[in-house]
Amino acid sequence: MHSWTQQQVYDKAVERVSFLDKDGIDLFKLSLSLHEAAPRIEAYNQYYHQAVVPSLTQYDDQCDVWVQIDNKQICSLQALIDAVKHVENPAAVDLLPFDHIIRPVKKDTTQEATLVLYTDTFSPKFKEFYTWLKSIAEEREIFFVIRYRPSTTNSIRNSLYLSGYGVEMALKKTDYLVIDDRDVQDDKSKSGIKEKISSIGKKLNHVLFDASEKATIEPLISSEIETLGLKAAQYIAKSSDPLETMSHLAQDFPKYAKSISDVVVDEEFKQEILKNHQMSFQGGSSAVWLNGKALEMSQVDPFHISRVLRSEKKLIKSIQQLGFSSKEAIELISDSVLSGGDDAKDTVSDVFDVRDTPEAPFITWWNDLEEDSRYDGWPSDIMEILKPTYPGQLHPIRKNIYNLILVEDLASQDSLSRITNEIRTMIKRTIPIRFALVSFFSEDNSVSALAAQALHHINQNIDKDTGMDFLETMLDLMVSNGLTRATDEVVEIAFNHILSSSNDLEQKLSLGEVNELHKPFTDATRSFITRMGIKEHNPKEGAMFFNGKLLEYSEEKPWAHTLMPHLNEQTRVVQTMAYNNEINTEFDFYNHVLSQPNVATKRNPFIQSSHINPLRIKVFDTTSTLKELRYFQSDENIIPSTNLWIISDFNTFNGLKLALEAVLFAEFNPKTRIALVHKSYTTDQQVIENKIGPKFSDVLCKLIYSDETTLATLKEILQHTNIIPETENDNDVLPGEITTQSNNEFEPIPILPGTPVVEIDAREQSKRWSVIDKALQEDGLETDFFGIVINGRIIGPLSSEDNLQFTKQDFDMLFEYEKTNRISLIEQTILHREKVLPKETTADVIMKLTAIVENDKAQVIQDVMEDHLPVNRNRVYENTVATNYTKIVINERSDNTFLEIGLIINPLNEMAQKLAPIVQTLSKLEGVSVVIHLNPISELEELPLKRFYRYVFDKEPHFDSQSGEQQIPTAYFANLPMEPLYTLGVETTNSWHVTVKEANMDLDNILLSSISEDQPTVSAVYELQSILVEGHCIDSLTKSPPRGLQFELASHSGTDKGDTLVMANLGYFQLKALPGVWSLGLREGRSSMIYSIQDVGANGKWNWNADGAGLQSDVLALTSFEGMTITPLVRKKPGMEREDVLEPAQPKENENSKTGLWSSINQK
C-alpha cells in the first residue's frame, strides 16, 4: 500500500465503508475532504515522540507495528506471545482522552488496560497483531489500546492543504463607490425599460457563469442602490438554480451591482417581502437551522457542521427505529409543541406554602416594605406598578410584592457572607424586595442550630439590625481565624459580644438557656426543612423561595442571576391583575399567591430535577424488550402512555411500602402501567441456594407471572402481607419472611418452605429478577440502584428512608409533573403526525421518544459566561406568512431525508457570501433538504457588499487524473475589475491562527492593472501556525478572575511551552498550541507560588465538585480543528490568601501577635 497513489488509498477507504448507506458514505467523504482526523493523528505522533519513545529501555524506529508492555518494545508476534505468558502484573497504561480501547465482550469489568498496540497506518503486520490480541483479550479478559505511530517509510512530511475557510478580495480604494449624481430623466418609456431589462437579463445570466467576460464596476445613483436588495432577491428566486445563483451573485456582487439595478421588481414580489418584514421577521436578518436546531453565526463553520451532521443522522436513525420515517422524525423533534413545553415546566407543584405562625415561627424577616420607616416616601398605591420603568428596574411601591426567603446554614462562611454583605447591602439600598431567612440545620445540637437559636433570641429581644451585627461578628471571627465553618466557640463569643454591648436586655441568658427557651422555634424550623425535602445545604448550591416558588442557585448561576427572570415574571403577573382591577390598595398579594389551589404544603425533592437530583433519563432499549418485564394496568382496554418501574428490595418493609404506594397510584391512573423489579440490598441476584425457605420476593415473582394476577390482586397481596422491618428482627422471624393477614376475600397462595418443589420454583423466580437486573445495567443503570423509573426518567437512588416518604400523593405529583413537561408533549407530537402506534408498544415508544428528545436537549453546550443557546428545536421559518415568491426549496423533504437546513437569508450581506457556498455544498449530499426564505433589506442606503469572496469547501476530495495526487483546495478569483485597489485576507474558524507563508506581491495593496505580463497572476499561500486553547478562569473561593495569573501549556517532554495571562475581564485567556497532548500548569514564579490548579475544566464546564485535595489530571488533548475551550478553577494556597500575583510579597505578621478568637473582636 505504500506504493499506492492518494486516489487509490481514497478509493479503497470508500470501498471499505460500502456497508454504510449512501448518506453515510457522503458524510465519510466530507470528513476526508476536511481532513477532520488530521489533528488527532498529529496528536498521536506528538505523544509518540515526546512521551512513548523516551519511556522505553530500547527502541527500534524501523519497527512499524509493535506492542508496549511496561517499558519494553515488542516487535514480533512470537515475542509478544512469550511476553504475555511470562509477564506478571504489567503496569497499567496512561490512557489518552481520545484512545481507541478494545474491551472484552464477555465480561463487564473496570480492569485497566495494560497493552498498547502501536501501528503504522498501512502496515500489513497490523492484522496479525490485532487478531491475536483480540483473541487473548477475550480469553484472559484484558484491555488493550490501539494507537497510531509516525510512518517509518515516509520520513519527509508533506504539507497538508486544508479547506473550510473563506478568502476575500476587499475593495480598498473606494473612489468608484461615489454615487453618480447626474440628473436622471423620469420620462423614459416603459417599453424602452422592458427592452433593456430583457437584454440585460440574458447578458447577466451569461456574465454570472462566464469568467471570461470583461468585468467593470459602474457607479450607481441613490435610487438604484435603494432597491438593490429586492432586485437581487427576485433575480435569485426566478433563476433556474437559485442557490447557485445566490452564491455567485453574493461572491462577485460589486461587478454585478449595475446589472442587478436594471432588474424590474414585480409588485407581488415586493409586497410579499414587505408583508414578511411586518409579520414574520426583521428585514435583512439572517438565521440558520439544522433540523430546527438554531445555529449561532459563529457555528456556521464546516468543521462544526460536519460534526453536527453525523449527530443529526444518528438522532434521526434512533427515531426511525421506533417506526417513524425520517421525514416524520424531523417533524417530530422540531414540533412547536416541544419548544413551547418550557412554558409549562413551572406550573406543577413548584409553589409551596412557606408561611409560619406566631406559635410555630421559623422565618426571620429582615425588612418589611409596608411597615419599615425607610420606605415612608414610597407610594402605597398598587396601581403604580403600571407606570413605565427602566429595563430591569423594580417599582418602588410600599407593598410586599416581592418576597424572598433564603435557606442558609449559619455555620457556613458562604451563607454568612451572602446575608451580611449582599442581602444587607440590598436592604440599605432600598431594593423593593422583602428579604427573609430560614436557618438550615440537621441536628438540634449542631453549631448551625446553635447559631440559629442565638440569632432568633437577639431578633426577638433586641432588633433585626443587632441580629445582622451578630452574624457579621461571626463572619469576622471566621475570616480572621481561617475558618470556613463556625464552631461552638465562635457562636458563643459573637453572642456574648453582642449581648455585652447591648443595653436593651434586662436579663442576659447563656446559649444553653437560649436553646431551651426557643425550642418551639427549633422544632418549627426543623419541621419546615423536613416538609420541604431539604436534606442538605451546600454553600455552593443553595435554595430559596420567591413568593413560595422554589429556586435553586449554583456557582455557575448565583442567586441574584437566578432571581432576576422571576422578578420580571412576577411583575407582569401583578401588572395584569392591576390592569384588570383584580387588586386594590388593601390587597395582600403574598397571602393571595400562597393561598392558591395549586400551592403544595409538602415537597418531595425527587420530583423536580435539581442540582442535588439532576435530570437523568435513558432510552432503556434492552430492558423495555424483555418478556420478563410484566406490566399491570387498572384498565387493560386503555392504551397506556406511561411506564412505571419500581426497583426495590421487596423483602424489606420499606421496599414493600414503596411498591404498595405505586400500585395505589396506578389504580386510579389507567394510562399508567406498572412493573415491579426486585433487587436485594444484601446479595447479588443469583440463584437461591441454601436458604431456609422462599422470601416474599419469590412468592411475588410467581404471582406476577401468573396469568390470573391483576393490579387488584397485587394491591390485595401488598396490603395484607406484612414484612417484618429489619430493625425489629427477632430470633424467630427472618428479614423478608412472610406473615399474612387473612380475610374472607383473599388468602395467600400457600408455599411451604423446605420442599424440593419450592426451592426449584424459587430459583426460577430469582433467575427472572436477574435477567431484568442485568438488562438494566446494560442500559446504564448502576448496579446498586434502588428507586423509580417513570418513562425513562430515573428517580433516585432512593434510600430506605426515601422509600417510606414516597407516598401515593408523591406518585400523583410525579406523574403530573412528567405528564405536563414531557409525556403529554410527546403524545401531541405523535398525534400531529397522525401516527397510529400498536397498543402494546405505545408506552415504550413514548418513553423512548421522551428520552431521545431530552438527551438531545442536553447535548447543547452553553457558554459558561452566558446561558443563551436555545435547547429546543423549532422550525420557525415554517411560520413565514407569505411564501409564494420568496420561498425556495431544494431537495424536497422525503422519507430519505435526515437533515433539513432552514435559512432566512439576506442575499446581499457578508454572511450570505459565506453561507451560500456552504449550503450549496451541503445540498449535494444525499439526504439533505434545504428550505430558503429570502429576506432582503427593502430600502438600501449604500452598497451592501464591498468585497469579492470565495469559500473553499467541497463535499469530497478531488484528485489529479494523471498522477492520482489530491488536488490542492484553492480559492480562485478570475475576471475581476482591474482598476480598484484590493487587499487580500482570509476568514477562518475562530480557533485558527494563520499567517502568510508565501506571496508574490504585497497582499495589502493589490492593483491588478499594474501586474506585468511576466507575472500574470497574484498568488499566496497561508499557513495554519497554531490552534487556540481558550477559556475562562476564576478563583473557586472568591468567584472572581485571578487577575494577572499566568498559565503555561507544556508538552510531555517539556521542550514545547506556551504561556498566557488571565485577563481581569471575565478571566478570559488564550493559549496557542499545535495538535497534541499537553499539560496545563502555572508558570514558575508568583503564579505557582500563590495559586494551585483545582481543576482544569477540560470538558468546558467549571467542576464545582473538585474538592481541592489535588489535581486529578492536568492533561489537555487538542485533537480538533475547532480548538478547545477549558474552564480552570484555581485557589490560593494556604497562607497566601492576602497575596496578589501582581504585587510584591507582603511581610508576614508576627505569629506571637495572635492570642485567639477574642483578638479578632478586640482588633475591630
Automatic annotation (TrEMBL):
GO molecular function, one term: unfolded protein binding
Signal peptide span: none
Segments of skewed composition (Polar residues): 1153-1164
Region Disordered, annotated ranges: 1133-1164
Biological processes, Gene Ontology terms: ERAD pathway; protein N-linked glycosylation via asparagine
GO CC terms, sorted: endoplasmic reticulum
Compositional bias annotation for Basic and acidic residues: 1134-1152
Domain of life: Eukaryota
InterPro entries listed in its UniProt record: UDP-g_GGtrans, UGGT_TRXL_1, UGGT_TRXL_2, UGGT_TRXL_3, UGGT_TRXL_4
Pfam families: Thioredoxin_12, Thioredoxin_13, Thioredoxin_14, Thioredoxin_15, UDP-g_GGTase
Domain UDP-glucose:glycoprotein glucosyltransferase thioredoxin-like: 622-853
Domain UGGT thioredoxin-like positions: 4-155, 213-339, 352-607
PANTHER family from the UniProt entry: UDP-GLUCOSE GLYCOPROTEIN:GLUCOSYLTRANSFERASE (PTHR11226), UDP-GLUCOSE:GLYCOPROTEIN GLUCOSYLTRANSFERASE (PTHR11226:SF0)
Protein name: UDP-glucose:glycoprotein glucosyltransferase
Species of provenance: Rhizopus stolonifer
Lineage: Eukaryota, Fungi, Fungi incertae sedis, Mucoromycota, Mucoromycotina
